[in-house]
Amino acid sequence: ACLDRTESHDAQVGAFLRVDADAALAQADAIDKRRAAGETLGPLAGLPVAVKDLLCQQGEPTTCASRMLENFRPPYDSTVVAKLREADAVLLGRTNMDEFAMGGSTENSAFQPTRNPWDLKRSPGGSSGGAAACVAAGMAPLSIGTDTGGSIRQPSAFCGVVGMKPTYGRVSRFGLVAFASSLDQVGPIAGSVTDTALLLDAIAGHCERDSTSLDVAKPNYLQDIDKPLDGLRLGVVTEHFGKGLDPEVESAVRAAIAAYEGQGAEIVELSLPHSKHAVATYYVIAPCEASSNLARYDGAHYGYRTEERAMLAQLQADRKAAQEAGDEQALDDIDTALVRMYRQSRSEAIGPEVKRRIMLGAYALSAGYYDAYYLKALKVRRLIRQDFDQAFEKVDLIIGPTTAAPAPELGQFDNDPLGMYLLDLYTVSANLAGLPAMSLPCGQSKSGLPIGLQLHAPPLEEARLLRAARMFE
Ligand code: GLN
């Protein structure tokens, strides 16, 4: 059914970069046979899962929606993909995204834009736009996204589905192509809170191959999910309802807060005073880490290499010969050619937004600016985290909007990168503080666009998030 639906609808939506129908059907058949033979199957037995195209899957292209990795086929599975296989999921295909997960509209993909299934003139959000859109359009019940500054929650809000960014370290990032390593986290997208819990159960847990993975026991997220939380204290943040918040979003979110109050929750007004610096802080730290992480795409080790320049092997052989001959001039010339190859490869294969991030990051990390930008941003990051720590002494969860407005039109931010960055107003704080947060649908605008409600929890309280979300659903 998912394959049929994809066949009939994805030409319009563009959620998938690749669908491997034959392999998916073969996996489904194999699972059926094992079921018939009486084998015990995993918790996702036979359920199709779509995976964002930046988690390594052995032998399959893993492009990050970049020309740079167009022909990259990893020789191994990421831990998340391996866990999906262990759970007997069917790997349906790979979803579109902003190049290297940098963006908020999926328009930065080198291959195609994705359209919002609710209104094809609009963006599904990003960077996990394909992952959210395929669930919204009924092409997959479950998908995997990543969230560095909101890339699971924001597209989930724009597409009317449920998405969670778990605590930093909760889900393994082994085999995830890195964007900003201190912020990146993998998480589930689904059509309901229960399905989100089911998928999180399958992918969460300690992983020895990821040094940032948390070595703590993993609860069963489905257990107790239907038990409402007694005496729930919900924090409403003054700064989340300031200038720029769309009135329709505000009233949907206020109605959701009232619904919780109706179920006995206590509503506590509070302030996160440093949250006004979150976007600025994020857009220093994320590009700094990106500029460092993306240095590996040099046209030499793997990825795209320019055709216009001499082949690397020849240059390396020449270099060796020149070294042996002690020919300094020849060595200089060869090194210049190598740098040219590096520069040319990157110029040709990396898109404009990713280049902008690399330049911003390299600038902020350079001698003379490091203290003023990068180090300052790290200090503000600490203050943002402290605000949350203090807030969670008074409340169990924080409730508010996921985004300030519903999905933007495609092309709206073509010449306005800053406007695009401001889409992340309410989402980046959770990444800066390492907290779990989720988005769930809470209404529609008059024009029929979905509106997202966001919940934040203290570290490792994903089960609390899910139970609270289930109370609303
Ligand atoms: N929109 C943010 C950015 O462009 C977040 C992206 C993400 O979470 N991957 O960096």
Automatic annotation (TrEMBL):
Entry annotation: catalytic residues: 52, 127, 151
**Could you provide one GO biological process annotation from this protein's UniProt record?**
translation
TM annotation in the entry: none
Q: Which residues form the Amidase domain?
A: 1-466
Q: Domain of life, per the record?
A: Bacteria
- Complex and partners: Heterotrimer of A, B and C subunits.
**The name this protein goes by in its record:** Glutamyl-tRNA(Gln) amidotransferase subunit A
